[in-house]
What we know:
The structure holds two protein chains of two kinds. Chain A is an all-beta fold. Chain A contains no helices and twelve strands. Chain B is an all-beta fold. Helix content of chain B is 0%, strand content 54%. Chain B has no helices and eleven strands. In chain B, the strands form two sheets. In chain B, strands 2, 4, 5, 9, 10 and 11 form a six-stranded mixed sheet that branches. Chain B has a five-stranded antiparallel sheet with strand order 1-3-8-7-6, with no helix packed on it. In chain B, strand 7 and strand 8 form a beta hairpin. The interface between A and B is medium-sized, with 23 and 21 residues.
Amino acid sequence: DVKVxxxxxxLVKRTGEKVFLECVQDMDHENMxxxxxxxxxxxxxxxxxxxxxxxxxxxxxxxxxxxxxxKERFSLILESASTNQTSMYLCASGIGTTEAFFGQGTRLTVx
Amino acid sequence: QKEVEQNSxxxxxxxxxxxxxxxxxxxxxxxxFFWYRQYSGKSPELIMFIYSNGDKExxxxxxxxxxxxxxxxxxxxxxxxxDSATYLCAVRSGNTPLVFxxxxxxxxxx
Lengths: 111, 110
């Protein structure tokens, strides 16, 4: 079974803090994605990566950055957390044109 | 901007009935179509995918694709209360990231 593991299930951070969300997959997938999900807005793509050290902006990259130093790990970084970044963050991985497998999600609250 | 549209619901069906969930997409170049189920507070899980026009059946689930009409649907036969969830339609063109609809909330009434 594909396993995509996100480092935290729930996280509370203060405004202005630098926040790291980690994601690890164990299936040697080339593609990894970060989405955020908000009520009424659905899943929105933040960043994605098709290879190590490669990254592409998604639909809403502002205020975020990513790092992919190893194939299995894709990190999302909130440079200076703000309250409008309170959300459910979902990491996913996949190969080629097939489906994406999701991690369990991180519910981030910025206070 | 590629768009995937779904009726937000809630769609309420009695237990044992057929639930029909619909999705339209804007990009004619779309090649792969996926249905995910998401329970409240959980992450999406894949339940069906379809690449070719027509029907694809898997147990109680049937996915239907009509590329000419840019329409994909999911039928759930013999609906159970445990099917109550939000169903997300996702579409991709080639190796681009999945584009998701906002989901349809299904409620199966016992």
